[in-house]
Amino acid sequence: MGRVRRRRRRGELAHAAVRRGAQRGDRHGTEAPPYEGVGDGDDDVETYSYTVLDVLGEHAEAVEADLAHHYPGYGRGGPLAAYWRGEISLRLLRVMVEHLPPDGATARAVNGHAWQPLDYAAADTRDLLSLLFTAFVNANRDPKKPPMAYPEPGWRPGDPLPEESEATAERDRAKARAAYEHITAQVLPGTG
């Protein structure tokens, strides 16, 4: 049996259902057709299968929220619900997830913060202006007055919060104190 090709008319749904029925299986262990990757130049082609759980990844709720937000044309539940209804293929769902924007819920969940490159640039600019201001004040100060202290850089994602820094410093002091007492107890007579 040959396949029948037909041209899509303007306005028709471009993402018609690819496969239905047997492909869906028990729905949780559903595997997509093998994905052909780039081989090493030999005749062998590297392939692997993936499931819907592989597509959703570790942050499934964030991926689902992003899909529903960025692809509203799929109706209630977004593309994920359309996949479970059999309206789109697992491959199309994977492509949609792989190309979610960098400022969505998925990116925030993966990175652990919502900072974008522009936020980092603004923080760098603020730090540089603080340094330049301090250098200007110190260069034009009264020689009899002490120089102004240079500012610390501003907080960025991944930096410890001030209260975390203080707690870490206190733990380090306690460890150092315990190590000192342990050494003095071994070395000094009458302390052990």
Features:
mainly alpha; 192 residues; single chain; disordered N terminus; 2% strand; two-stranded antiparallel sheet; 2 strands
Topology:
Elements: E1 35-36, E2 47-48, H1 52-56, H2 60-70, H3 78-84, H4 90-98, H5 105-111, H6 117-139, H7 162-187
Antiparallel strand pairs: 1-2
Helix pairs in contact: 2-5
Number of helices: 7
Percentage of residues in DSSP E strands: under 5%
**How many beta-strand elements?**
2
Distance between the termini: 92 Å
Provide the succession of SSEs: EEHHHHHHH
**Shape by Cα distribution:** flat
Largest sheet descriptor: 2 strands, antiparallel
Report on the architecture of this protein.
- With 192 residues, the protein is mainly alpha-helical.
- The chain is 46% helix and 2% strand.
- The protein is built from 7 helices and 2 strands.
- The chain has a two-stranded antiparallel sheet.
Please sum up the structure shown.
By secondary structure, the protein is mainly alpha-helical. It has helices spanning 52-56, 60-70, 78-84, 90-98, 105-111, 117-139, 162-187, and strands at residues 35-36, 47-48. Helices cover 46% and strands 2% of the residues.
